[in-house]
Amino acid sequence: MSKLPNEAELFKKALQVGAVYAKKRAYGEIEETDSVKLKVEFIYKVLVEDKLIQPLAKENISDPNMRHKLALWLSRQLPEGHALLKE
To answer: What Pfam families does its record include (predicted)?
Structure first.
């Protein structure tokens, strides 16, 4: 698992975009008081359920790996040349 350029920023944006997506798909809303770990797990499961990302192998499911998957997902949604994709 190689780090993406600007992975932390991509991850933060993925949480925002994922929360909007989950709400539009009627999976529920993320509360401000929810922990980041809970948000990550919720959005990861929503994206896996809708087959937008490939699930991690059971032995590889962890918070850092889910964060990486979310950042990778968002990086593929952004147009080429986007500021978050530049090193």
So the answer is: DUF5062
What is the pLDDT averaged over residues 26-55? 94
DSSP 15: H
Check: pTM over 0.70? Answer yes or no. Answer: yes
| Helix ranges restricted to H, 1-87 | 7-24, 36-49, 63-77
Three-state SS for 33? coil
What CATH topology corresponds to 16-77? Answer: Four Helix Bundle (Hemerythrin (Met), subunit A) (1.20.120)
Spatial contact of 19 and 32, defined as CB atoms under 8 Å apart: no
